[in-house]
Design goal:
This protein is of the alpha+beta class and 76 residues long. The protein has helices at residues 19-29, 46-54, and strands at residues 8-11, 37-41, 57-63, 69-75. Strands 1-2-4-3 form a 4-stranded mixed beta sheet, covered by helices on one side.
Length: 76
C-alpha cells in the first residue's frame, strides 16, 4: 500500500487486538534507519504510546474525518 506519509504502512483498522500492536512492533523491528512507519487504526492506541516512548520512538497522530487515526512513528 502506497501512502504519501510513508512507504511503510500497517493498516490495522480491521484487525482484532492484539494484532495491531504485534504487527506494529514487528514492522518497527524491520524499519530501515531514518524511515517512518504509518499505522492506521480506528482507535487511538494509548498502550502503544508508552511502549514506543520506552523504546526510543516518537509519534504524531492525526484523526481523519472517516474516523481513522494516522499514527506516524519514527526513531527519536
Amino acid at each position: 500500500m502506497m501512502h504519501p506519509k510513508s512507504r511503510h504502512v500497517v493498516d490495522a483498522r480491521y484487525l482484532e487486538p492484539p494484532e495491531p500492536f504485534v504487527q506494529t512492533l514487528d514492522a518497527l523491528d524491520s524499519l530501515p534507519a531514518g524511515e517512518k512507519l504509518l499505522l492506521l487504526l480506528f482507535r487511538e492506541p494509548h498502550p502503544l504510546y508508552a511502549v514506543l516512548q520506552k523504546n526510543g520512538y516518537r509519534h504524531e497522530c492525526e484523526l481523519l474525518p472517516d474516523g481513522t487515526f494516522e499514527i506516524l512513528i519514527w526513531r527519536a
